[in-house]
Amino acid sequence: MKKILVTGVGGPAGKNVAALLLERGFSIIGTDMQALTGLKYAFIQVPAAKDPDFSRVIEQIVVQNGIDQIIPTVSEELPVFARMQGNNHPGLSILISPAQAVETSNDKYLTAAALSSHGIPVPRFVLPSQVYSARDIERLVGWPCISKPRVGRGGREVRLHTEPDLREILALNDMYILQEFASGTDYAPNVFAGENGASRVVVLEKTALKNGILGNALSVRRVEDAAVGATAQAAAKALDCRGPLDIDIRKRFDGTPVVLEVNARFGANIRFAPEILEAALQETEMAA
Ligand SMILES: Nc1ncnc2c1ncn2[C@@H]1O[C@H](COP(=O)(O)OP(=O)(O)O)[C@@H](O)[C@H]1O
Ligand SMILES: [Mg+2]
With the CA atoms of 178, 183, 184 and 190 taken in that order, what torsion angle do they form, in degrees rounded to the nearest 10? Predict the structure, then answer.
């Protein structure tokens, strides 16, 4: 039986990936930066991804426990794991896209720029340093508009602005991105991007959001939406991803799907799309 290391098992994605693997009879070890107790599998506390010791600690766990595969689920860890790929650990696979795809996905401005250059619809976007007035914003992204950190997660600091917020918007630096507000339904397509640009997708619709009209999904349901599914798969291909993805897509008022962000890992709602995890295990020959 293959042994799988799942990171971030204290978070929603890690917790659900670990539970699905246990149900399928895999032997797993979980890690997290917080101490966790009462788990049904072995657990090791690890430093934060930004700690210079992080990679060394992970490599030690891999060697000491004979790990066959790492499934990273923590956003901050993704660039670190992407760079670790190809380090000399024969037989170890890391379930993550190539480093360039991970770097691009990690930054919402780079993601929007890369997708729009491939003709994939994204909300109109601009950097704060490129606007000087309410009219600039009207012309470039329209009112109301969204501001959010280029590198962020969990809906933190995502704000919807109207014109009276102009001073606040102009004070933002280029660590933020300004975007057109896509006012329609929010989706979380779960994707596994395989070799040769082939991919599987399950479209989940977010039926309630944490902050009412914005934010993480409080609940989801599976839907058949070919346009959302095709947009998610086209985004995966354009960014040259090969691995699990949790993509945020929203519809404009006219119903066009636009890509808000690409998370290069399994998402919190993977329980609603277990065939995406299964496709990943099969392609990487982990399936029992
Ligand atoms: N341009 C946008 N138009 C409409 N809603 C948005 C937009 N950008 C973000 N949101 C809302 O905010 C949530 C969080 O934004 P997102 O880009 O997914 O960042 P993160 O999840 O990394 O914090 C989205 O799921 C969506 O509900
Ligand atoms: Mg998101």
Answer: 30
